């Protein structure tokens, strides 16, 4: 598995269901990597600028099997 990827597109989520309400805002992104394109949540988002084409680094796979990237 490649450690790096780039943001293809993303969305910042400001409103969420009760399960995720305490985690807003958070970012969901399509990430391009050598493994292909995957949907991921971005870690460490604190309101900073995000851009399409920005490089991100693979962090881990969460308990639900979702790839998590950090930037």
Main sheet properties: 5 strands, mixed, barrel
Mean pLDDT: 84
The rounded distance between the terminal residues' Cα atoms is: 17 Å
Give the fraction of residues assigned to helices.
under 10%
Spatial ordering of strands, largest sheet? 1-2-3-5-4
Order of helices and strands: EEEEE
How many separate helices?
A: 0
Low-confidence stretches: none
Return Rg in Å.
12 Å
What is the total tally of β strands?
5
Structural class, please? Answer: mainly beta
* C-alpha geometry: globular
Strand residue content = over 45%
Provide a quick synopsis of the model.
The protein is mainly β. The chain has strands at residues 4-13, 26-33, 36-43, 55-61, 67-70. Strand 2 (26-33) and strand 3 (36-43) form a beta hairpin.
Structure description:
The chain has 71 residues and is mainly beta. The chain has strands at residues 4-13, 26-33, 36-43, 55-61, 67-70. It has no helices and five strands. Strand 4 (55-61) and strand 5 form a beta hairpin. It is globular. The mean pLDDT is 84.
Question: How is this fold's topology laid out?
Answer:
Layout: E1 4-13, E2 26-33, E3 36-43, E4 55-61, E5 67-70
Parallel strand pairs: 3-5
Antiparallel strand pairs: 1-2, 1-4, 2-3, 4-5
Structure keywords:
five-stranded mixed beta barrel; globular; 71 residues; mainly beta
